[in-house]
Specification:
heterodimer; A: 118 residues; mainly beta; six-stranded mixed beta sheet; four-stranded antiparallel beta sheet; globular; B: 118 residues; 0% helix
C-alpha cells in the first residue's frame, strides 16, 4: 500500500526565515507522481508542483524549491525568505495507479501547518 | 479564468435532512472528484467520475451519492446526514489524456463547501 509521511505537524518561523517541509513516501510502483499542495486558511487546495519518478532534478520556482531524492524516497519542499502569506497547511501527495479507475487517486500526507509570524 | 466553482460556500442542514452540494467547472476536464476533509486531516477521496463512469471508493458510506449530468457539473448528495458528516467537501477536476491509462495530471480544486449539521 502506498503511504506518505509528513513528520512535521506544525512549523512556526519568523518572517524571512527559510523553512523546509519533509515528505517521505512508500510505493511499489516504478512509475509514480508526487505533488505538493498548499491549503491557506480560506480552504482551497492550490497545486504547487508535480514531479514524476524519473525526473530527479531539483526545481526552483521563485521562493519555492523542491528536492526529490529517489534513493531516500523523499520529496522535500523549501520556502526561502518566508512571508506571512506563506502561512498555510502544505500537503505532499503521491499518485496511485488504480487499475479500477481512470482518475488519479492521491495518497495525501497528514499535512504540515506552517505559521509565519511577522 | 477557467476554474472550479463550489456552491454554496457554507451549508447548514439538520440531522437526517438530505443535502446536495454542487460543483461546476470551466476547465473542460473529463475527471471530477469529491473529497471529504475533516478538521486537521488530509482530504479523503469519496468517489470520482471519468466522463460518466462512476468510481466509488470502497469505504465511502452508502449515505453519499453523486451525479454528473454533464461535463461541467457534478453533485454530491448526502441522503441522511449525521453529525459525523460535518466537514469541508472539496471538488476537484483533472484531465486524462486519451493515450494514458490513468490521469496523472494535477487536480484543480474548488474553494470547498463547509457543511455543518444541526
Amino acid at each position: 500500500a502506498q503511504k506518505v509521511t509528513q513528520a512535521q505537524t506544525e512549523i512556526s518561523v519568523v518572517e524571512k526565515e527559510d523553512v523546509t517541509l519533509d515528505c517521505v513516501y512508500e510505493t511499489r510502483d516504478t512509475t509514480y507522481y508526487l505533488f505538493w499542495y498548499k491549503q491557506p486558511p480560506s480552504g482551497e487546495l492550490v497545486f504547487l508542483i508535480r514531479r514524476n519518478s524519473f525526473d530527479e532534478q531539483n526545481e526552483i520556482s521563485g521562493r519555492y524549491s523542491w528536492n526529490f531524492q529517489k534513493s531516500t524516497s523523499s520529496f522535500n519542499f523549501t520556502i526561502t525568505a518566508s512571508q506571512v502569506v506563506d502561512s498555510a497547511v502544505y500537503f505532499c501527495a503521491l499518485s496511485e495507479r488504480s487499475f479500477k479507475a481512470a482518475g488519479n487517486k492521491l495518497t495525501f500526507g497528514g499535512g504540515t501547518r506552517v505559521l509565519v509570524k511577522p | 479564468d477557467a476554474m472550479v466553482i463550489q456552491n454554496p460556500r457554507y451549508q447548514v442542514t439538520q440531522f437526517g435532512k438530505p443535502v446536495t452540494l454542487s460543483c461546476s467547472q470551466t476547465l473542460n476536464h473529463n475527471v471530477m472528484y469529491w473529497y471529504q476533509q475533516k478538521s486537521s486531516q488530509a482530504p479523503k477521496l469519496l468517489f470520482h467520475y471519468y466522463d460518466k463512469d462512476f468510481n466509488n471508493e470502497a469505504d465511502t458510506p452508502d449515505n453519499f451519492q453523486s451525479r454528473r449530468p454533464n461535463t461541467s457539473f457534478c453533485f454530491l448528495d448526502i441522503r441522511s446526514p449525521g453529525l459525523g458528516d460535518a466537514a469541508m467537501y472539496l471538488c476537484a477536476t483533472s484531465i486524462r489524456d486519451p493515450g494514458q491509462f490513468y490521469s496523472n495530471q494535477p487536480q484543480h480544486f474548488g474553494d470547498g463547501t463547509r457543511l455543518s449539521i444541526l
